[in-house]
Specification:
This protein has about 350 residues and is of the alpha/beta class. It folds into 2 domains: about 5-225, HUPs (Rossmann fold); about 250-330, Uridine Diphospho-n-acetylenolpyruvylglucosamine Reductase, domain 3, CATH 3.30.465. It contains 12 helices and 11 strands. The strands form 2 sheets. The chain has a 6-stranded mixed β-sheet, sandwiched between helices. A 5-stranded antiparallel β-sheet has the order 7-8-11-10-9. Strand 5 (about 160) and strand 6 form a beta hairpin.
């Protein structure tokens, strides 16, 4: 008897490998948008989970950002149910405007909703449908923005409750699996909107690179992300130890107070990681916090001559003697540090 088509088999194998460590009877949820990638993931999970003695459901998040989003979400949930997934949860979220941009803000709202749904159902994992091509796009976007090693490390295969089984499969294979599974995929119009940076990378930049450099660029970018992630994980671990050593008690639980002497003795790469983390903890939005901001705070440690407070996005950084404080403040308009 013939086995499944190659694309379907590849997606099933990827899902099976991503679930091997889960205990018998555990529940996993597939995050399904109704797009081809997440539907292919849903179909593969519906096949693999019962054979691995696992339960599989689905979670659909409606951001309400596009006309007809409710209908798309309802259709996605219905297709998940038709695959035999259960429970199938549909949650509508409000995407807050915090200055990080609509794509980042929608992602934050979506992940938070998925975490809530997983906790409510006792799911041990939430599966996301990102592919190798998504990883390559993420690396290029990080490179273009000068976002540093952590951004260039791309998306992790697993972090917390989230798992990405398809990161080593290209989009063509995954979408072929969806088609061969007889599923009706929705195409997000933002994928063709050249006003969106990721759409430009997908439609223009990567194809141009493939044409000029030869095939395999996306796979090479994904490999680069994997190697950089190992380096970034180590640096983050060391920076975490430095943060613990430098942190001082604060009268305000939101503020972060650090020992300047401990920071000054550390390697710049670790010290600046700590300063960025401290600013984020104090409430600075990640998308608005630039390298120039971090370097300006670093100067309060290494080149302080009594200069006054520095205004970051939503945070004030100030030094008093041997103490550096990053304190939350309401957003204000101020020039970026030069």
């Amino acid at each position: 008897m013939a086995g499944p088509p190659a694309a379907v088999a590849a997606v099933r194998v990827a899902v099976r490998e991503a679930l091997t460590d889960l205990p018998s009877g555990a529940l996993v949820l597939v995050a399904c948008s109704g797009g081809a990638d997440s539907l292919a993931l849903a179909a593969a999970t519906a096949f693999v989970a019962p054979r691995a003695d696992l339960r599989a459901g689905a979670a659909v998040v409606d951001h309400g950002l596009q006309p007809g989003s409710n209908e798309v979400a309802v259709a996605a949930a219905a297709q998940c149910e038709s695959l035999g997934l259960g429970p199938v949860r549909l949650e509508r979220v409000l995407v807050a405007a915090r200055g990080a941009g609509p794509e980042a803000e929608a992602r934050t709202a979506r992940l938070a909703a998925l975490e809530r749904l997983a906790a409510a159902d006792g799911a041990v994992a939430v599966l996301l449908g990102h592919t190798l091509d998504d990883q390559a796009e993420t690396v290029l976007l990080g490179l273009a923005r000068g976002a540093g090693a952590r951004s260039l490390a791309g998306m992790a295969a697993g972090r917390g409750v989230f798992r990405r089984p398809l990161l080593e499969l290209d989009r063509t294979t995954v979408r072929e699996a969806c088609r061969l599974s007889g599923l009706d995929a929705w195409e997000d119009p933002s994928n063709a909107d050249l006003g969106v940076a990721r759409a430009r990378v997908r439609g223009n930049v990567l194809p141009t690179m493939e044409a000029g450099l030869g095939p395999g660029v996306a796979a090479a970018l994904a490999r680069t992300a994997s190697m950089l992630r190992d380096d970034a994980d180590l640096l983050d671990h060391l920076a975490g130890e430095l943060m613990t050593a430098a942190r001082l008690p604060s009268s305000d639980p939101v503020d972060v107070v650090l020992d300047v002497a401990v920071l000054a003795a550390a390697a710049p790469a670790l010290r600046r990681r700590v300063l960025r983390t401290a600013a984020l903890e104090a409430g600075s939005p990640a998308a608005a916090l630039s390298r120039a901001h971090v370097l300006a705070v670093d100067a309060l440690v290494t080149a302080w001559h009594g200069q006054g407070p520095l205004h970051l996005p939503a945070v004030t950084a100030s030094r008093r003697g041997a103490h550096l404080t990053l304190a939350h403040q309401p957003p204000r308009h101020s020039p970026k540090p030069s």
